C-alpha cells in the first residue's frame, strides 16, 4: 500500500476486520417490494462517471479548499487561534479540509465494504438488487474523495479511531441488519449532514460539485436503510430492539467524538485539551452538532428505535429537538440541488460554445 501524502503513516498497511454471518440466497424471483425496486431503478438511472461529470480542471487553493470564512473554523476566537499568524491560519484551514475529506474518504470505503456485505447477507432479493447499485456508488465516492485529497489538497489523514471503531463493530455483528444500521443510518446519516453543511459554506466550484453529486447518491442510500429497517424492526422482540438501541447509542457517541478534529490539533502541535474544551463550550459548536445529527435522529425514530435509552442519549448530546426534522424533504432537496447545478453548468457551457462559435465566425 502506498501512503504518499499522509500527514503521518496509518497504523497499519491494511486493516483486516473479521466478519461473521451467512451468505443468504433468495429463490423468489418475483417482483418483490415495489418501493425498493423503484429505488433500485433510480439507482441504475442515476449512475454517473466522476471523470466526466466533475470539472477536475478547476483550480483549488490548497490552503483554503472550501473558500471558507475564518469564523467557520471550530477554534476561531480561542487563545490558540489568536496566537496564529496569517500563514499559520492558512495551514490550519488546509489541515482541517484534509482531515474532513480524508474521513469522508475512509467512510466511503467503509460504506463500499458494508454495501457489498449487505448484498451477501440480506435475505431478500430486492434489497440485494439495490445494494449492488449502492456498492458502485460508494466505489465512485472513494474515487472522487481520493482524487480530491491527493491532487487538490495534497494531504491525507489516517482514519479517525472513532470511525474505525464503529466500522469494526458494524461489520463484526452476525445479524444482517447491523451493516444497514451502522452504515446507512449512523455513518452515512452524519456524513450526509456534514456534506450539506460544507456545501452551504463553500464558495469554490469543485467542492460544490463533488458534495452535490455525492449527496444525490447518499440521499438514496439513507432512504434504502430507512425502508428496509423499518419493515424489519416492526417484527423484532423487545430484547432484539434493545440490542439495536444500545448499538445506536454507542455509535452516536462515537460519531460525536469523531467530530472534534482532535487529530488536527495533535498533528499541528496545538494544546489538544484546550482546543477541545473551547469547542465543547462553544454555542456555535452546539448548533453545528445539532445540524449534523439532523439526518440521524429522525431516521432512528422512524425505524422504531426510540426507547428511553435512545432518547436519553440524544438529550445528553443536545440533539433531541431535531427528531421532528423531515428527512424526506431534505433528501428531495439534495437531489434537486444536484439537478439544478447540472442545469446551470450546462447553460454556462452552452453560452461559452455560442461565444466561441461567434468568435470563430468573426475570425473567418
| Sheet/helix structural class | mainly alpha
Overall 3D form: globular
CATH topology: Ribonucleotide Reductase, subunit A
Q: Which architecture per CATH?
A: Orthogonal Bundle
- Compute the average pLDDT: 89
Tally of domains: 1
Q: What is the beta-strand fraction?
A: under 5%
CATH class: Mainly Alpha
Helical stretch count?
Answer: 15
What is the number of E strands?
A: 0
**CATH superfamily caption:** Ribonucleotide Reductase, subunit A
Helix content: 55-70%
Order of helices and strands: HHHHHHHHHHHHHHH
Instruction: Pick out the low-confidence regions.
Output: none
* Amino-to-carboxy terminus distance: 54 Å
Structure explained in plain terms:
The protein is 69% helix and 0% strand. The chain is globular and about 70 Å long. It has helices at 34-45, 50-53, 79-83, 86-121, 125-153, 161-172, 178-201, 205-233, 238-258, 262-267, 272-281, 283-292, 296-302, 308-317, 327-363.
Amino acid at each position: 500500500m502506498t501512503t504518499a501524502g499522509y500527514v503521518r503513516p496509518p497504523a497499519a498497511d491494511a486493516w483486516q476486520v473479521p466478519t461473521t454471518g451467512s451468505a443468504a440466497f433468495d429463490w423468489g424471483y418475483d417482483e418483490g417490494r415495489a418501493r425498493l425496486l423503484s429505488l433500485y431503478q433510480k439507482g441504475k438511472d442515476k449512475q454517473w462517471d466522476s471523470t466526466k461529470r466533475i470539472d477536475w480542471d478547476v483550480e483549488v487553493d490548497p490552503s483554503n479548499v472550501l473558500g471558507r470564512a475564518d469564523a467557520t473554523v471550530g477554534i476561531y476566537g480561542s487563545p490558540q487561534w489568536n496566537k496564529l499568524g496569517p500563514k499559520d491560519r492558512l495551514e490550519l484551514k488546509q489541515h482541517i479540509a484534509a482531515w474532513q475529506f480524508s474521513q469522508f474518504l475512509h467512510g466511503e470505503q467503509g460504506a463500499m465494504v458494508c454495501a457489498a456485505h449487505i448484498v451477501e447477507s440480506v435475505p431478500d432479493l430486492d434489497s440485494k438488487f439495490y445494494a449492488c447499485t449502492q456498492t458502485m456508488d460508494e466505489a465512485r465516492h472513494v474515487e472522487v474523495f481520493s482524487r480530491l485529497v491527493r491532487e487538490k489538497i495534497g494531504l491525507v489523514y489516517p482514519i479517525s479511531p472513532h470511525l474505525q471503531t464503529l466500522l469494526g463493530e458494524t461489520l463484526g455483528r452476525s445479524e444482517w441488519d447491523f451493516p444497514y444500521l451502522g452504515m446507512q443510518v449512523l455513518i452515512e446519516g452524519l456524513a450526509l449532514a456534514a456534506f450539506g453543511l460544507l456545501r452551504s459554506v463553500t464558495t469554490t466550484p469543485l467542492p460544490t460539485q463533488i458534495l452535490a453529486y455525492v449527496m444525490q447518491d447518499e440521499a438514496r442510500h439513507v432512504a434504502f436503510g430507512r425502508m428496509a429497517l423499518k419493515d424489519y424492526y416492526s417484527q423484532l422482540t423487545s430484547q432484539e430492539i434493545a440490542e439495536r438501541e444500545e448499538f445506536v447509542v454507542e455509535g452516536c457517541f462515537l460519531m460525536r467524538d469523531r467530530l472534534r478534529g482532535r487529530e488536527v490539533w495533535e498533528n499541528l502541535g496545538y494544546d489538544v485539551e484546550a482546543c477541545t474544551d473551547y469547542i465543547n463550550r462553544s454555542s456555535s459548536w452546539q448548533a453545528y452538532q445539532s445540524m449534523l445529527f439532523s439526518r440521524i435522529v429522525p431516521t432512528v425514530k422512524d425505524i422504531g428505535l426510540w426507547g428511553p435509552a435512545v432518547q436519553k442519549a440524544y438529550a445528553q448530546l443536545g440533539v433531541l429537538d431535531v427528531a421532528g426534522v423531515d428527512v424526506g424533504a431534505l433528501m428531495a432537496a439534495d437531489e434537486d440541488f444536484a439537478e439544478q447545478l447540472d442545469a446551470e453548468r450546462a447553460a454556462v457551457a452552452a453560452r461559452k460554445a455560442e461565444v466561441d462559435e461567434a468568435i470563430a465566425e468573426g475570425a473567418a
